[in-house]
Structures are given as C-alpha cells and as structure tokens.
Design a protein that fits this description.
alpha+beta, Penicillin Amidohydrolase, domain 1, Glutamine Phosphoribosylpyrophosphate, subunit 1, domain 1, seven-stranded antiparallel beta sheet, 23 helices
C-alpha cells in the first residue's frame, strides 16, 4: 500500500514542513489529514471510468473512452464541447497539479508554506509572471475572442469537476496542506503558459557575463564565450540558401557596455531543460513513410508534466501529450501531420540599468525623465499578514532588482525586457496544429507563437518533413543583449523584430532528415545576429552522425536512438587526458580506477563504472580550471562545456589553467588532469566503501520526485536507467526524456509513446507511476489512435458527458 510508505516517511515530511514554515503551528492538522472518513485514505481508490456525468453548458453529448493505459479518447461534436471536456477530464485526473503549477507561476507559494517561500514569490512577481499573463488576456480580449472563448470553455470544464467534489474527495495534497481548490479562470491558463515560457527561456546570463567581462577582460571573455564554436552542426543545414531574406540586421550603434551589476540573481531555468526531435523523409525510411520523433527533456516529476489524450471532433482528430492547464495536444499527431518541439534557447531576455530621480517616481531615458509605473504586489503569507512589494515598471519592463530586492544601489535598478511580457496568442498555435492537414497549415499555426523560442519539427502523410525555429525575435545589432545595457539610451532598445517568414527554417532538405537537440540554430551565414546562448554541442552531433551513417531508417532505429547512451563529450576528452596525464605517482587503488576508465567504451550504461569515474573526474577538473570564477559577492557563470574541453586540449598552458591558491607553482592542463584524477579517486573510494560499488545506476540515482519535494513516499527513487546530460538519452538525476514519441506517417499515422509517470495524479492509484519501469527499460506503448467513437477491444471503460438539461 503506497500510503503505508507515507506513514514511514511522515516524520521526515513533518521535519521539512517545520523548516519551510519555521512554526509548528503552520503544519496542517494531522488529525484531519489522517481521518479515516475524509482524510488521505479516501484517495486510495481506482478512477471511475464508466457511467454518465452531467456537465453544465455542454451543447451535445461527449463520449470518453479509456484504454488500458488510462488514456482518455475524447469525442465531441464541436470545439467548444471538446475543450470543456478536456478541462473536465484533466481536472479529474490532475486537479492538484493543475492548480499548484499556477500558484508557483503567480508567486503564491507563501499562501501554502508560509514566510520561507516569500523570496521565491517576490522573485516571480518581480519577474513579471502575473503581469505577462495579464498582457496575454488583454491581447486575447482585443484580437482573438474565439481563442479566449475556447479557454473559457476549458475553464468551465475544470470548474464543473471542482463543483462536483466533496471535501473528502479532494486530492491528497489539498488535505496534506489543508487548503481547497479554487475556481479555474482563463488567466490561470495564461499563467500556466508563462510558467512553461519561464522554464524554457534560455540561460539569461547577461548580468553574470557583465561581471565576467569586467573580471577577465574582453579578449579572454571572447575566448571563453565565443559566438560560434570551432565545430558547428546547426539545426538548419549549413548549405541553406538565405538569399530570400531582404530585411537587414540592425546596424551596430556606438553604445557602450555598462560594467556594473549585482551580487545575486534570481533563479534561472534548469540547465538540463532541453529536448531532441528529428524526422526522416520517406526516401530515407524503410517503409517509404516519413517518421518523426520527439523527446522533451524536462524535470522528472510526479505527477508527470504530461497527460496523454486523444481529442476529436468531426473536423479533426489529435492525439498526444497535453499539459494540464493548456488546450489541445502539445506534442503529437492527427490524421495528416505530426509535430514536436525542442527548446531553441534563443536569447529573448535583455537587461537594462535604470537611473531614477531622487524619489524614484521617474527614470532617465533619451535625456528626459519618464514616469515610472508603480505596481504593488500583495503576497499572502500563511499564518501572517500579507507582504506588499512595490515593483517599478519602465517601458523596458519590470525593475526586478533595486534597493528593495537583491541590490543596495539607492538610485538605480535593473529592468528586464522579456518577449513573454508582450501580449500574444501562443495557445492558438496548438489549437491550429491540432487541426492542420499539411505543411502550409503548420506554418500558419506557427505564426502565433512568440515565446519561448522552440524548434517545431513536422512530418506529414503527404511526404513532407520540415523544421522551423519559431519565436518572436528582436532584430538585434551584433552583441546586443550579451551584457547589461544602459537603459537611458534609445539605441539599446529593441529596434524591430525579425519578420516571421525570415525565421530560420528548412523544408525537405536534400539530406533527407531534419533534427534539433538544442544546438546552435544556424551557422555564420544566417543574416541576423544570433547570440550563443550556451548551445548543446554533443547530442546533436551524435544524432546527425547517426542519420548520416546509412541510407534507410526504421522505427526500431528511432527507438535505439532515443535510448542511445553514447557519451561523446567523454569520448573527446578522456583519451586525451589518459594520454597526457603523468601516472607515475598513482597509488595501487588509483591504478585500478585508471584501468577501469581506460577500458570504458564511452557508453553510459547502468552497469558501467566508467561514467561514474568520468563524472567525478571531469567535475573536479572543471572546478579546478575555473577557480578564477569562484568569487564571493559576485554573480558569475562558467564557460560552456565544449569551450572548456577545447581549451584543455588546445590551450593547455593558458593562464586559466593555473590554480589560484598555489602561489609557488603554475599549473598546466596536464597537471590538472592528475590532480583532479586523484581527488576523484578519493571520492570514488568513499562511495564504494559506503555504497558497495560505483556502477552508474547506483552513482547517478535517477528519481522522479513529487512536486512537493517533502513527500518522498509519493516519489520514485533509484530508477534503473542509463544516459546523462549531453547524451541523447539525456537522463540525469532528476531530468530527462519526459515524453518519448515516435510517429510513422502511415494513413492514418501509427505511433508509439511513453513517459516517466502515469496518467493519474493520485498517488494511491495503480496508474500513478506505472509507466516508469517500462520507460527506464527503453520500451514503448502502442498508442490506440481511434478513428471513431466506437468501442474496440483496447477500451476498458466509457463515460458519457451529457448536458445538464439533456433528456
């Protein structure tokens, strides 16, 4: 019984609540939580998947078939009913997750956990998350009433489910935290999309780069952070002809870098957020049909980020992964096309230094004083009075850092310019993709997508494959946005945007495949400035080398590639380190470890020890190399992995190789290899003594944690899966392929899919985490793409949603 595990770990849970809230009085009442009538025990039930349910506002009946994977196949007679049903069904299985994500996005966690969450909430408010959602709502109200009505339908569906619940039926997390669900609104959907935009916004290191520039100088900075690496295998093939572009890049102004910044910055997106996608043409497919694959790399969470559904009306029939809170299928297929996304990590956030007048009512711009817009954010705190935070807004955006938040400068602040603050209609992209029938429909759907920048892969039953790097991108002058800029100089503003038709893209390339893995989008020939935002340099080369290795590819090849554990990063450095490291001083224990990694084939398989040795060795080496950038009271970032390895192999006597603390010696890269190896060997011995071995499966310890990290009983630990960051199977400790999908463009398409979780958000359900073991083993499920609402052998239950006034 899963809840028995909860009781075992409940002491830990209480302790964590104590740390979060500091006052034992803020812990929810345990008696209420454990009540046998209305408490946690009421949640250990299987989902009801049969019978009729009345839903207010439906126009017609909606049929919902559940298959053996607990995937709902929703058949509605019109789009309004479809999205109302999607909201209802999503809330039925994922209500707490649905709402908690928007609490996080809105900076409302203090309402649940007390004062210890205040800094997080202030960060989100100052980041402009609520402001951005409000801009989306204003845009929809002004320009797209139809999409807004669909979002309202979804909201009505969520609320229809909430209204049917009794308190004893609330998901267990509500009982544990002692609060209740609130009504869903269209603004919450906008907040959910802002949450995803923040998660995939790129690294946003402008302020850190400014500090690094001041610390090491321009020449060294350009060595450490080049715009292009010496090896560039971009998303869009190098041979692409850009002659059709007739709008020029913004010319370089005479503005200067502002060489000041702050000590501490707000939380950034997780560096492991990324993805793979690819497609091969029919000519490169064993069956003659195009094949498409997608695997977004996101946090391994329970409940899962994704909820798989089929959404059908008489006019369209879509299947795939949805995100609780958003309409339509996000990564999936319909009768005619398939699509999927990877993070393009384009630089869509810039920072500006703002100079205020004495009372901070105005700010300097273009040799004049402009009025500041004042926004007071009221943050409710559990068990205490609300906290009111005054956030100043300029035409650039919110002043995130000022004298009241992470800065001591009395007369200046740092404002964020983020494309996500511009009103847009991202939701329409997926509504239109779900209905698209061909390449032109796909391109039309993408025009509505502003942020986050995404690589949208495409394949169709007509035989086309394509990939667009889509987002609303500022047409920047060369270098713009790399460092903190003077907010008073109009030349530093975004002057214009790249026309959407000139966004980098490719259709049916001669090589017969398209792919993206968060690498550089283009090479130097693309006419617009593209900032190197720490692009991936390993997964993409493994993928492209694979598709250049033979002529024809099968679905099995796609499975094998999804689960490929080859560590190209290690393969490009370990042999060099082994060859150039002085080994005469190694102890007998160290020689054993040396021989172990010498014998490694560079696959991060679960039973190998090589990956563990590599992780320790490279980690120690990296920290030794970049000790110059380990400075207190200064926000800094370290160079990209690829450039680090380039320097170790090609600039072994550079001043950066010298260890700062050793005043009597100047180290080279060869010295660092040995010193780091000895430190790694020492740590590996400790692990072996404690754990018994340091095989990769034990060393890495992949887990899928509950969204409330204080609930180990609702999490899964020690998942036996290989891979790692920078590997195609990009599974690290708590990040990895959050949804693996393979679609062959037969008519209709046939598809496979799996994700590390389960369809239910109820930890007491057999469907909560039942996919994880198969996912870890590299297995897939056949997706039952129903062509009508008739019951098949795969269906285990059917519900009918009926209008309230149905007779």
């Amino acid at each position: 019984m899963k809840y028995f595990k909860l009781l075992i770990s409940f002491g830990l849970t209480i302790g964590i609540f104590y740390v979060l809230n500091t006052q034992i009085g803020n812990i929810p009442p345990l008696g209420k939580f454990l009540n046998p009538v209305s408490g946690i025990w009421q949640n250990e039930t299987n989902e009801t998947i049969t019978g009729d349910i009345s839903i207010p506002g439906l126009k017609d009946e909606v049929t919902v078939h559940y298959d053996e994977l607990m995937i709902p196949h929703v058949f509605a007679q019109n789009e309004a009913d479809l999205y109302k049903a999607q909201g209802y069904i999503t809330a039925k299985h994922r209500l707490w997750q649905l709402e908690f994500q928007t609490h996080a996005a809105a900076g409302r966690i203090s309402e649940l956990f007390g004062e210890r969450a205040l800094d997080y909430d202030r960060s989100e408010r100052r980041r402009g998350m609520v402001y951005g959602a409000e801009q989306v709502m204003e845009y929809l109200e002004k320009y797209d009433s139809e999409t807004l009505s669909f979002i309202q339908n979804y909201s009505d569906g969520v609320n229809a489910y909430i209204d049917q619940l009794n308190p004893d039926e609330y998901p267990v997390e509500y009982k544990l935290l002692d609060y209740k669900p609130e009504a869903w609104t269209p603004k919450k959907t906008a907040l959910l999309l802002m949450y995803m935009t923040k998660m995939l916004a790129g690294y946003d290191d402008d302020l850190e780069y400014t500090n690094v520039l001041r610390l090491v100088g321009k020449e060294n900075f350009e060595l450490l952070f080049p715009d292009f690496f010496d090896i560039t295998d971009p998303v869009i093939p190098k041979e692409t002809d850009w002659s059709f572009i007739d709008v020029l890049q913004t010319p370089l102004p005479a503005s200067k870098v502002v060489l000041d910044t702050i000590v501490e910055t707000i939380e950034k997106p997780h560096p492991d957020n990324g993805s793979n996608n690819w497609a091969v043409s029919g000519a490169r497919s064993v069956t003659g049909n195009p094949i498409l694959a997608n695997d977004p790399h996101l946090g391994l969470k329970l409940p899962s980020i994704w909820f798989v559904m089929q959404l059908s009306t008489p006019d369209h029939n879509a299947f795939g992964a949805t995100i609780p809170g958003a309409l339509g299928v996000i990564s999936g297929f319909n009768q005619y096309i398939a699509w999927g996304e990877t993070n393009a990590t384009r630089d869509v956030i810039d920072w500006y230094k703002i100079a205020f007048n004495e009372d901070r009512s105005k700010y300097k711009y273009d040799n004049q004083w402009k009025d500041v817009i004042i926004r007071v954010e009221e943050i409710k705190i559990r068990g205490q009075e609300s906290y009111k935070d005054t956030v100043l807004y300029t035409h650039h955006g919110p002043v995130v850092y000022d004298k009241n938040f992470k800065s001591e400068n009395q007369r200046s602040g740092y404002a964020m310019r983020w494309i996500a603050h511009d009103g847009s209609n991202n939701q329409k992209t997926f509504i239109e993709l779900n209905k698209a029938k061909n390449y032109d429909d796909y391109v039309n759907a993408l025009q509505y997508w502003n942020a986050p920048a995404q690589n949208f892969v495409f394949a169709s039953t007509e035989g086309d494959i394509a990939l667009w790097i889509q987002g609303k991108f500022a047409n920047k002058w060369e270098g713009q946005g790399k460092f903190l800029m003077d907010g008073s100089n109009p030349e530093n503003d975004w002057q214009s945007f790249i026309p959407q038709k000139f966004n980098a893209h490719t259709k049916n390339p001669e090589r017969g495949f398209v792919s993206s893995a968060n690498q550089h989008p283009v090479d130097e020939n693309y006419p617009y400035y593209v900032f190197n935002d720490g692009y991936e340099t390993y997964r993409n080369r493994v993928i492209n080398d694979f598709f250049n290795s033979k002529e024809k590819f099968s679905v099995q090849d796609f499975k094998d590639l999804h689960n490929n554990n080859y560590n190209l990063k290690a393969a490009e450095l370990v042999p060099y380190m082994l060859e150039h490291m002085e080994t005469s001083s190694l102890s007998e224990e160290e020689k054993v470890i040396y021989k172990e990694i010498e014998a490694w084939n560079f696959n991060n398989d679960i039973d190998e020890v090589g990956p563990s040795i590599w992780r320790q060795w490279y980690g120690k080496l990296y920290n030794m190399l970049w000790d110059e950038l380990d400075v207190e009271d200064m926000a800094l970032t370290s160079p990209y992995t690829y450039q680090t390895i380039y320097l170790l192999k090609n600039c072994g006597n550079h001043e950066f190789m010298d260890i700062v603390e050793t005043k009597d010696k100047t180290e080279s890269s060869k010295d660092l290899f040995l010193l780091a190896f000895k430190e790694a060997a020492k740590r590996l011995k400790e692990i072996k003594d404690k754990e018994g071995d340091y095989t990769w499966v034990n060393y890495k310890g992949t887990y899928a944690g509950h969204l409330l990290q204080s609930l180990p009983a609702f999490s899964r630990f020690d998942i036996p899966i290989g891979g790692d960051r920078n590997i195609v199977n990009a599974t690290s400790e708590d990040h990895g392929p959050s949804w693996r999908m393979i679609v062959e463009m037969t008519s209709p398409p046939t598809a496979l899919g799996i994700y590390p979780g389960g369809q239910s958000g109820n930890p007491g359900s057999q469907y909560y985490d039942n996919f994880i073991d198969d996912w870890a083993a590299g297995d897939y499920y056949s997706l039952n793409f129903l062509q009508s609402d008739e019951v098949t052998d795969a269906i285990i239950g059917t519900q009918t949603l009926t209008p309230v006034n149905h007779e």
